Every structure is written in C-alpha cells, then in structure tokens.
C-alpha cells in the first residue's frame, strides 16, 4: 500500500471513552505515517509508524488528505448515474462534461441479495461495476479535482428503495454505516445520499425512519463524509417525511422538482418555494438543490427558467439532473445541455429560451431500434413491473434489462 507522509487526525466520540466504540478502523486506503489525537482521554495509542497496536481496531482515520475525501461544492451541478434508466447503460466517466461536480452513484437498494435479508441496514450495489471502479473514479478525480462522488441509497420504491427495519434502530444504523463506509472506501467515493422513495407514513415506521436517518447521517458526518438526502416534492412525494428530519448533519437536499408533472415555470417556482420552506428549517439555508429531468418529465425550458428564478429569489445551492445517461446519449440537444447551462446560470449568465431541448426517452430499449431482441414488453415480462412501458420511466432497469439480450 502507498505510504503517506500526511499526519492523520483521529476523531473520537464521547462513547468511545465509555467503552462503546462507535468509530471503527478505516485503513484500507493507505498507510499513515503518524497519528495525533484531538481528545486527551482516548486509550493509549501514540503512533503507528508501521507498528502494530492492539487498540487500532477502535479507531477510524478521517484525515481528508489521507483518505482523499472531497469537499462539498459551493455551486452544485450534480447528476445521478449508474441505474440504467430506461435501459440506457452509463457512459464512461471520461465522457462527462467538466461542469458536473457531484455524482450520485445509483443505487444501493435494501439488501435482498445479502444473506441477512431485507430490513437489516445492509444493501445491494445495483450500479454498473464496470463503470464505477476505484481506479476509474481516481482517474476521473485527478482530471476533475473538484468532482465528488456520493453513494445513493434507495431509489424508486418499486425497485428496492423502500425503507423498513427488522432489527433495532441502533443495529440498523450500525449495519448501514459499516456497509456505506466499506463502499466509500472500496470506490474512493466522498460520501452518501439517502434517497429512499418508499417511506413509511405512519408510526412506528415513520419514527424508525427519522431515528435511523438522523443516526446514520450523524455517523457519516462525524466520520468526515459528505451527506445528502433526496426527497421528491409532489402529491405522492416524500418531502412530508423528510421534513421531519433534523438536517443539521446534511450537506445537500436534492429535491426532485420534476416529480409533480408541472408544465409551467410559474408552477414549478411556486412548488420550489413551498419545498424550500417545508424542508429548509432553521440553519439549513443554502442546502437546497433543484432537480431537473433529462427524460422528458419536465421540459428543459421550464426546468432552467424555474431554476434561474429560484436562484435569484431563494438561497439554493445548484441543480442536479436525473439522469446523465439520457442527457449525454441522445436525450438532450445539445448533449449535456441541462448540466452545462445550469453551470452557466450559476456563473451569472442569463438563460436563453430554446437553447436546451430534452424531448424525452431514447433507445434502447425499443426493439425496432436496437435490432437485438430487447423491447419494453420483454423488460416488463422479465421484471414483472407494470411501470416498464413506453410512456414511463422503468424503475430498477438493471433488474429489468440485466437478463436480456443486449447489443
């Protein structure tokens, strides 16, 4: 392993001193030359310098220099990537425009593939493992030093993005933190986003959601990672549940403003102001990130005009898109225009109507376009999801299309 000369600071929690360590070792990335402590009451570990210590397992090294954890961008241009939306495979990271500085790796779903089963706080990584590797992310970060990667947990309720527990809240938090920290380390990512779209509306499930989300986000934040939540605003939205959370330990609130089916900028702006008021709360100004859609669920003109107005009237952080696959592979003209235009607006430019067009779905999966036996009907039959139709997004597309013949 690479040896670093960086001095790593060890963060500790009060309960660590009380004999119940909440922090654990994260030493996979590199050897650390020496260690200092920010509390005088930690057990006696003075220095590593290549030597062993019986107390090492009780600690996590959170030096951002040593672990290469990025910083939250001041002006966010974000996107979701990796979920195979509508059967569209993710493009190489090197193809993404430099303006994109925040990538939500999509998605980790409740761990049905894990031996523990669902409801335990363990997850299944559903993204494309050929695109997201530690080596490729490291190379991309070197080329784009301001870009950060977040592991997004949840997604559509129809495809594993439903929150529930079968264990105590404390055990769920511990399991979820362990799993996410392992993935962050394995990929060289910078943090995590909670994006559960299936959220309980009644107690005790709603109370468990609040306790588990706040506990997990606090653990992630204490360990030095970037944190985010991803509610959506609408008639069946989850903003009502997410507004119950204490967002003190949240860096970004990624709000899906396209989920309500609005067709005018005035309606979207009105919804945006209501969403900000609903979620912002005391001390949370400037965390709101406006969501635009590159698959036709809100026109690009409406999205960008609404974003521009909200930016001028409210304290918001930036814009994200669902999804970068459509935006860069035929869904938008010019390609990536949602992301690049958002960056221009954040930089002070005025949006010109008609300069970005994202008409909607692209092929695949239409059989007549691909010529390889993959159709919407095949996808619907394969995953049993009635939402896999020509006219709607197909949640969990890796599940829907993963077992089919591809081009």
From TrEMBL:
Residues 75-349 form the GH18 domain. It comes from the Eukaryota. SUPFAM superfamilies: (Trans)glycosidases. Coiled coil: none annotated. Residues 1-19 form the signal peptide. Keywords: Signal. GO terms for biological process: carbohydrate metabolic process. InterPro entries: GH, Glyco_hydro18_cat. This is GH18 domain-containing protein.
């Amino acid at each position: 392993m690479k040896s670093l000369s960086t001095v790593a600071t060890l963060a500790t929690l009060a309960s660590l001193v009380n004999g119940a360590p909440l922090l654990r070792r994260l030493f996979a990335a590199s050897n650390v030359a020496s260690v200092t402590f920010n509390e005088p009451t930690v057990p006696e570990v003075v220095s590593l310098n290549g030597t062993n210590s019986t107390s090492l397992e009780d600690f996590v090294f959170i030096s951002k220099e040593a672990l290469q954890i990025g910083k939250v961008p001041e002006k966010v241009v974000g996107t979701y990537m990796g979920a195979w939306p509508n059967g569209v495979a993710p493009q190489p990271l090197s193809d993404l425009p430099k303006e994109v500085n925040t990538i939500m790796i999509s998605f980790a779903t409740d761990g049905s593939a894990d031996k523990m089963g669902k409801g335990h706080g363990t997850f299944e990584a559903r993204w494309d493992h050929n695109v997201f590797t530690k080596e490729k992310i490291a190379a991309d970060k070197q080329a784009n030093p301001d870009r950060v990667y977040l592991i997004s947990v949840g997604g559509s309720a129809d495809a594993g993005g439903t929150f529930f527990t079968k264990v105590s809240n404390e055990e769920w938090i511990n399991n979820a933190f362990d799993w996410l920290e392992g993935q962050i380390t394995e990929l060289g990512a910078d943090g995590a986003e909670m994006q559960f779209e299936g959220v309980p509306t009644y107690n005790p499930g709603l109370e468990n959601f609040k306790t588990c989300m706040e506990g997990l986000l606090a653990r992630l934040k204490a360990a030095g990672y970037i944190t985010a939540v991803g509610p959506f605003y609408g008639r069946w939205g989850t903003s009502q549940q997410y507004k119950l959370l204490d967002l003190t330990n949240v860096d970004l609130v990624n709000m899906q403003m396209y989920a309500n089916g609005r067709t005018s900028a005035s309606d979207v702006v009105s919804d945006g102001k209501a969403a900000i008021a609903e979620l912002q709360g005391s001390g949370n100004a400037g965390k709101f990130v406006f969501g635009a859609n590159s698959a036709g669920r809100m026109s690009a003109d409406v999205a960008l005009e609404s974003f521009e107005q909200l930016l001028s009237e409210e304290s918001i952080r930036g814009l994200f898109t669902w999804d970068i696959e459509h935006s860069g592979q035929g869904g938008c003209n010019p390609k990536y225009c949602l992301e690049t235009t958002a960056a221009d607006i954040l930089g002070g430019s005025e949006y010109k109507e008609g300069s970005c067009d994202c008409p909607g779905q692209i092929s695949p999966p239409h059989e007549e376009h691909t010529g390889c036996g993959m159709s919407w009907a095949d996808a619907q039959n394969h995953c049993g999801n009635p939402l896999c139709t020509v006219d709607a997004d197909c949640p969990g597309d890796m599940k829907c299309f993963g077992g089919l013949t591809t081009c």
